[in-house]
Amino acid sequence: MANAKLAAASLTEVAPDNGGAKKGPRTPQEFFAIVHPPEAEATDAQLRAAIDWLFPRVLLRPPTEVESARLIEFARASIAEDGKLLGFRNLLAAIMLNPEVVYRSERGAGQPDEFGRVRLSDREIAYALAYALTDSRPDDALLAADLATAEAVRGQAQRLLDDGKVAKPRILGFFREYFEYAGAADVFKDEELFRSHSPETLVEDTDRLVLYFYERDKEVLKELLTTRLSFVQYTERNGTPERSSAKNHGAHLAYNLPPDWKWHADQPVELPGDQRAGILTQPSWLVAKSGNFDNDAIRRGLWVRRKLLGGTIPDLPITVDAQLPEDPEKTLRERMGVTREKYCWKCHSRMNPLGETFEMFDHFGRWRTRELGEPVLSAGRIDWSGDAEVDGEVGDAVELVRRLAGSDRVRQVFVRHVFRYFMGRNETPDDAATLRRADRAYAESGGSMKQLILSLLTSDSFLYRKG
């Protein structure tokens, strides 16, 4: 309310001008005609003109007749009580305090159908589509579109997806939120241990990899889980590839590239297949799922259990001190032995065997073969996955992610996470048909992320609300 009043005051400034008065730099003529001269009475026509000027600028639509009549009545009462200037400012503040200025309406239009559902209005669908993809208000074409059918909605969604000039930060935002690799920048590391560590560069490299496969739009999830390709210190300025800034230009060492590796614009580069397979073996993800001075096999296993296998792990009991013993002469796997106590193993058995496969990397994301002078143990297991073909022993993280990448269950869990992100809520039993159609659209299109998104944005779950 305070901000609305400040804005209203800014829009009604009157400046002195050679003994007379002129409108302030932000005051439109429609408002100046009301506030000056101060002794003149404001007419209904002037008030309506002011309302018609402000409405499209803050609500992106003209006022209805009912709204105009109600606001003029409010202005008259406010002017009578507080004087013309303050009363008029109250009118402007009231328009800017319309809930529609701050919140998206999803009340729907018309009467509920036989299932008790109300379809969103065209305007509400336009806003929902725009914010789902672009995180911005809808453009003129979307606002003017007839969105009475799912096919029409699909056409507009397709237009936004295909238009390279329309920024779509929500696409990359999903992958960042799903894989959580951007958290690498928040993990403190001792620079003395690896002076070339540059988490921002690692995150930017993974961003580029995500967009590379999204733009190709084939088997997106499988590629992101298994690819040997990676961008390394790669960025673009005005469409021209260039080397991203990194400490000592040595960020490539996190990928185990040779110390004398020369940066080149022909990227992505191919990494050894026995060392890397997709985002879960990218240094950015490994750092994001590590501690300050060591790996975090438990947290890595928890991520795999929840995000790939769709499992649940109870929250840590408040009576448990979840700290591994400090012992510089023992490996992480050895120190994790305390989690095998009966009380702990009920939950840790669903995380540790998954996360321990990533011990083939250190906490900076570098591939390694030895830890504390001993051969690294990266073997693990997949259990209770819900897919009998997936369960069993795995030799390391590369084998783990390659096996999971071919699982129908992992694909279906991924679709569920895409649903949650673009719907802004968890799924319910009523969304079962939407999830099945979305999974089918993804599978039958050859793993197209765009077709998956289009299926969700044209579904009843997106277009309808319970009355």
Keywords:
467 residues, mainly alpha, two-stranded antiparallel ribbon
Question: What does this 3D model show about the protein?
Answer:
By secondary structure, this protein is mainly alpha-helical. The protein contains 22 helices and 12 strands. It has a two-stranded antiparallel sheet. It has a two-stranded antiparallel sheet with strand order 3-12. Helix 3 packs across helix 4 (65-82) and helix 19 (408-423) packs across helix 21 (449-457). The longest helix is centred in the first third of the chain and has 18 residues, at 65-82. The protein is elongated, with a radius of gyration of 29 Å. The mean pLDDT is 94.
- The counted number of beta strands is 12
Q: Can you count the helices?
A: 22
User: Structural class, please?
Assistant: mainly alpha
Tell me the strand order in the biggest sheet.
1-2
Shape: elongated
Could you tell me the mean pLDDT? 94
What is the distance, rounded to the nearest whole angstrom, between the alpha carbons of the first and last residues? 31 Å
Radius of gyration: 29 Å
- Low-confidence parts: none
Kindly estimate the percentage of residues that lie in beta strands according to DSSP: 5-15%
Helix content: 40-55%
Major sheet description: 2 strands, antiparallel
